[in-house]
Amino acid sequence: MRDILYVDDLIHAMEVAFANIDAVSGRAFNMGGGAGHTTSLVELVDLIGEITGEMPMVSFDDWRPGDQRYYVSDTSAFEALTGWRQRVSVVDGVRRLHDWLTENDIPALLAADAAPAWSAAAAPVAPAAVGEL
Question: Rounded distance, CA 9 to CA 16, Å?
Fold first, then answer.
């Protein structure tokens, strides 16, 4: 079980933090989807199948030492201080991600015959140049 925080909600949290900078300055907060935005891997695979109309092929292995079976962020301190709440549900977030991937033709880019082009395009900026941006 994991919680899911859609990127728009994270950006909104950063905007809310900036708007409340005096209250949040110097504090650390757990950010994530929280208890209301959780899913298991099995539920996520089923949801992807519902959205795409095709069940993903997956296989499972044994648990490894140190694997967390359950992780959910406690966002209550940030919520209480700022009034921020997650707005995008797990289902809506996965659906939005699927739509974005489809609109940007990402599945075609990930196809085996397109992998070399995708790999070359994935790193247009050399790591040494990043600091110069």
Answer: 10
Domain of 83 in residue numbering reads as 2-58+66-118
Cβ 36 vs Cβ 86: under 8 Å: yes
For 60-106, how does the pLDDT look when each residue is reduced to its tens digit (9 = 90+)?
A: 889 899 888 899 999 999 999 999 999 999 999 999 999 999 888 88
The DSSP H or E segment spanning 3 is strand 2-3
Identify the CATH number of the domain in which residue 6 sits: 3.40.50.720
Distance of CA 115 to the CA centre of its chain: 23
* Domain assignment present for 112: yes
One-letter identity of residue 122: A
